[in-house]
Amino acid sequence: MLSLAEIASVESARAERLALLTAPGGWLSLVGLEWLQPGPNRIGSGPDNDIVLKAGPERLGVLTLDERGTALFDPAKGSGVLVDGMDVERTVLVDDASPGQAPTEVRFGSAHFFVIARDGRKALRVKDENAATRTSFQGLDYFPIDPTWRVVADWVPFDPPMELEMGTVLGTIEKEKVPGKAVFVREGKTFELFPVQETPDALFFVFADLTSGKETYGAARFLDTPLAKDGKLVIDFNEARNPPCVFTPYATCQLAPPENRLDVRVTAGELNYRGASH
Fold this sequence. Notes:
Elements: H1 4-22, E1 30-35, E2 39-44, E3 51-52, E4 61-65, E5 71-75, E6 82-83, E7 91-93, E8 106-108, E9 111-118, E10 121-128, H2 132-135, E11 150-167, E12 173-186, E13 189-193, E14 196-199, E15 202-207, E16 221-226, E17 232-236
Parallel strand pairs: 2-3
Antiparallel strand pairs: 1-10, 2-4, 4-5, 5-7, 6-8, 8-9, 9-10, 11-12, 11-17, 12-13, 14-15, 15-16
């Protein structure tokens, strides 16, 4: 049985998840993933642009991707574009893979974009706080909180870290460093899960199970945990969540690798989104 503190922790994680998702710049506001071509890319809502946006003025500006991969943006005169809150004539746009720097935000009305770097290519991630996916959001559904799915696993560290190949919805393969594996027993069977470590104080799991494609989203679910302590790792599957791809076709989510496909029904955490259309 979960303690009141453990139940409160699950409910707090779910509330934080909902707040981030529904925020003006959250995943529900995503309206575009536009790949940049080398050289000039004309951007705007007009149909004759190289990149046609779903929001904003007909002529937003020109983004030039030079031979070094640097993104230079020239806003169109009178477009009302603000770059990191400022009215500029020409500027370099920092992408989301630049160490220690937030990506440059190009805002126009209720919408904005920034540059992302994926698999050696660059794209615009476009968000609009008035997106239908946000304004028509139907809420999140969960399995009932189940104390048996708060698992205390054995932690087996890897030295050096193992390299794991993870596919994405884009059809690309990302190589991730895995610092160890979590081993636990359920229904008399032993299971293993391999996390990546994206932040210093947490582990990140991308997993699937026998509910995937039925009660839960088919590609994967995501789950964060604290680091292992004294050789043990607490995995609370009640906090498992859907990836952004369940809400929008414009996200670049990782898929559960074969190593993290569990041959058991994990009847805990977030259910498939009832508003999903893809």
